[in-house]
Amino acid sequence: MSITSDIIRGHTETIILAHLVERDSYGYEINKFIKEQTNNKYELKEATLYSAFRRLEKASLITSYWGDQKTGARRRYYSITELGKDALKQNRLDWNESKELIDKLINGGNENV
Amino acid sequence: MYEKLKKSVDELFENAPKTHRATELREELLANLTDKYDDLISSGKGEEEAFKIAISSIGDVDELLDGLKDRNIFDYNDTQKYRRKNALVLSVSIGLYIMSVVILMLLNQVFMVNNVVSVSIMLTIDAIATCLIVYNAASRPRYVKNDDTIVEEFKEWKSSNNAQNEIIKSIKSIVWLIIVALYFILSFVFDAWGYSWVIFIIGAAVEKIITLSFKLKE
Questions:
Q1: What is the distance between the alpha carbons of residues A47 and A31, in angstroms, rounded to a whole number?
Q2: Would you tell me how many other CB atoms lie within 10 Å of the CB of residue A8?
Q3: Which residues in chain B (43-62) have CB-CB distances under 8 A to chain A?
């Protein structure tokens, strides 16, 4: 499981972008999405999540705004930019390429061994 | 229990820089933890357990706080680009200043153009050159404060002060240029060499007024 964690953490930004491309969202919702998609096996630490948000914001791949909750604390929503969509497209290509390569390297080109 | 969550988050940010960004991050973190806590409670967890799970999900706070300190405002490439533009504009304007005198002499001596017309042409060229310098100073990338510390405020103050000084300097140079030109035009046209020097005293007064008006605007 530790290898999986590392790989997922290495793609935190892309995972966030992939979620935001569907709709605007906030930290907890994104993390819940990750948890649900991985059958409760994996979830990001808050610190990792926010660091990724800041990096993405700095690179202008996402923007943020404060929601207007009637009750409780305000939520900070994130939304993907055009630049972010391009980056996501490129990252998906990169990922699929490396997936194939690693498959070949690790499984020796034969997945049924 | 919400109070307890808030207190824990506040404690985490005790050593964080007291900035706008830190406050926002704290608010964001608290909102997410509260959501998480509510979810855990509604999924049947006890209050104490839900609190513990929420707090432990924060992870490495130092990683978070380090991001707050990271401020790289001036991109190296941008600075380089600006420097190159700056040098180009400056050389063009200085070239124009020199050219204007050459043109004045040519018009006057070779083409025998009337004094007033040739001086006006020279002034127009000088004005263009000065405008270029003013534009260059005004469009200089400004240092944007991204932190609420005194150091940042000082840097911003210094940066805006420099930009303003450049503008004042340019305005003053235009004023003196006009005064010198006026001195020659008036003296030649009205043959008033005897008392036309008064214009320089007026010029000094005008310069003081410009400095004062900028200071008052602050």
A1: 12
A2: 17
A3: 57-61
Of A32, A45, A76, the CB nearest to B58: A45
Tell me if A103 is assigned to some domain: yes
Chain A residues with CB under 8 Å of B30 CB are 73
Token pair belonging to A73 = 């604390």
- Of the candidates B25, B27, B39, the beta carbon closest to that of A74 is on B27
Taking only the tens place, the pLDDT of each residue in B52-98 is 888 888 887 777 777 666 544 445 566 677 778 888 888 888 888 88
A36: chain B residues, CB-CB within 8 Å: none
Instruction: Output the CA angle B122-B127-B128, nearest 5 degrees.
Output: 100
- What residue numbers bound the domain in which B127 lies? 77-217
ipTM comes to 0.79
> Which residues of chain B have a CB within 8 Å of the CB of A51?
63-64, 67
* Domain extent at residue A85: 2-107
Give the A:B interface size as CB pairs under 8 Å: 59
- CB-based contact B21:B148 (threshold 8 Å): no
In whole angstroms, give the CA distance from residue A27 to residue A46.
Answer: 8
* pTM across the whole model: 0.52
